[in-house]
Structures are given as structure tokens and as C-alpha cells.
Model the fold of this input.
Amino acid sequence: MTNRELIDKLNTEKALQKSEWAQLFATFSEADRLYAAELARGIADKVFGKKIYLRGLVEFSNYCKNDCYYCGIRCSNQKAQRYRLSEEEILRCCDEGRELGFMSFVLQSGEDRAYSTEKLCGIVRAIKARHPDCAVTLSLGELPAEDYRALYKAGADRYLLRHETADEAHYAKLHPQSMTLQNRLECLKTLKAIGYQTGCGMMIGAPYQTPETLAEDMLFIKAFEPHMVGTGPFIPHPDTPFKDMPQGSFETTLLVLSLIRIMLPKTLLPATTALGTIHPLGREAGIQAGANVLMPNLSPVAVREKYALYENKICTGEESAQCVHCLKTRLASIGYEAVESRGDYQY
Ligand code: 5AD
Ligand code: FES
Done:
């Protein structure tokens, strides 16, 4: 089959074989990518209209016990300037976000044991008490099932945990032995079973990624049926073992976004900050390829540069209000509009 026929097949059957996915990733042309984008954007317009959901991201700690080879805040990076926000600081970020029109907050951190589950539950309850009409998303990495349950009971609505790669051998090339794909997938299953709107995802162009491993990712995403998929290009960080690895491809990232949208029409799909980092109009291109979410940073400007998972991250010098204004202008320039909404998954 031609790539165009494969894209049509995906659109009608919502599934492809592994070899078909691999063919697409290995051989797609610019015309194939644009064809997928047109279909994907048509689907997103049908499901969400011209409306884009905003999530306010609060990066509250860059301490991490893990040592993922790709990540700038890995525990072995002695050069990372570590910080932790207090409960009051986190709440202030959310208050400011609410003023700016956000109804959805993402609390993200490294795997930092300094915040006990009890403490985190208190923070979730406090946000929910102040902003009962808003959604709280957590992105705290791998935790025991009982902690996931306690945080859900405290009021958290969603959880983001990228699977990173669905190929076991590839997973082992990106992470130290203490981390396993099996555990990651177990966490994802647990999160979904508890009732969280659950997000998985992977980097595009991660070191040692191949058309075949990317094909595995698509098969996994299809089977898991996540409510959200976070995917952006790999960008090397100078103080990691992968510092000399090439950056992920802009075009492949856009193609993947489009194919995910075609496969899972209702999924919440952000145009990521990483995509905006490798191209000045990356986030706009992501939306035009089928994304329907933006996640501007609400973290205090004083700590933004320190949450550097990769190099040259955008928006680290901007006040939250400035980013929101900038994004609204950018959305308007392509005919879209940010909406004041929780932006829940529509089951
Ligand atoms: N480039 C792009 N994305 C990265 N992430 C971590 N390090 C990098 C990097 N160097 C992504 C991972 C992680 C998410 C929070 O950020 O996929 O799950
Ligand atoms: Fe942050 Fe444009 S979105 S400056």
C-alpha cells in the first residue's frame, strides 16, 4: 500500500499493523505528512471546533531520584540548580492562573521524595477548595498504587505519565536498570483503573528510536486508549549522556501528532513546549496538525530556567500573563481561540 492509502486505512479502521506503521515512519514524504495533517485537523475541528484548551503548568520541584539518560534534571546532573516550591507558592501560581482564565492546572515535578503523599494530597485539596470548578492534573512519575489512590481521593482528576517507549529493549537504552517498562506500564494501568483521565506519550527522535519502536508506540497507544497523549521532539541537554545525540525531527513530530489524532479522535493532544522550542511556530504547526491543547508555564519566573529537561526551552523569561497573551495572539493568527474550560475528556 502507498503511504497515502495507509493514512486512509488508519482513518477508516483506526488501526494499522506494525509493519504498516513502520513503513509510514520510514518513508513518509512531505505530501504524506500534509495529507495526514489535513485529515487530523478536520477531525479535531469536528470534535473540538476552533477551540483550544489551556493547562497551566506548575513545575514545583526539579529534584529527582531518577537518572534517565535524556533528562536535564536527572539526579546525576550536578550542575542542575535544584529548587522546591512551597505549598503557598504553588497555590499562588494557581490563583494567578485562575485570574488569567485557566481552569486546569498541571502540577509537575521530578520524582522528589521530599513531598510526602500526605503533603501532596493537602496541596491538591487546597487547590480544589480554592478553585472547585477547576481540574487538577498530576505529573509526578511512578508512585505506589496506594499513593495514586490517595491523590485521586484528594481530588486530582488527571495524571500524566509518559511511557517513553513501548519497546522493552529501547526502554533499557534510555533508562538505568532500576527503571523498567513493565513498571511504567503497570503504573499507567493502575492510574486508568483508579479513574484518572490518564496520559501517556513519548519523545520523537529519542536516541535509538527506530520506525519499528515508534510503530510499537502507536500499537501501545491504540491498545491503551489514553485520554491524553503528550509527545514532543527529543532535544539534547548538554549535561546528560545524550548531549551529542541529534534532536528529534520537527516533521516526524507533526506526523505523529496527526496520526494520533486520526487514530484517537477524542484524545487530548497538546502542542508541547518542546515543539515550540525547536521551531518558532512549532506550537501553531502542532495545532494545525491536529493538537487541541496548550500548556503554558505558570511557574514563578525565578525558577523557570531551572526546570530544564532540555536545552533552550522557550518562555523561561516571561511572566505568566505575558505567555498567555502571546499564546492567544498566536492562536488568533491561525484562526483558533483559547477557551476558559476544564477541557475534560468526553467519554
Ligand atoms: N527532550 C525532550 N523531552 C524530554 N523529556 C525529558 N527530557 C527531555 C529532552 N531532553 C520529556 C520526557 C518526560 C517529560 C516530562 O519530558 O518524555 O516524560
Ligand atoms: Fe510564552 Fe509566547 S508563549 S512567550
Summary: The two ends are 33 Å apart (CA to CA). Residues 70-71, 162, 164, 203, 232, 234-235, 237, 274, 309-310 surround 5'-deoxyadenosine (ligand 1) (CB under 6 Å). Residues 30-48 form the longest helix (19 residues).
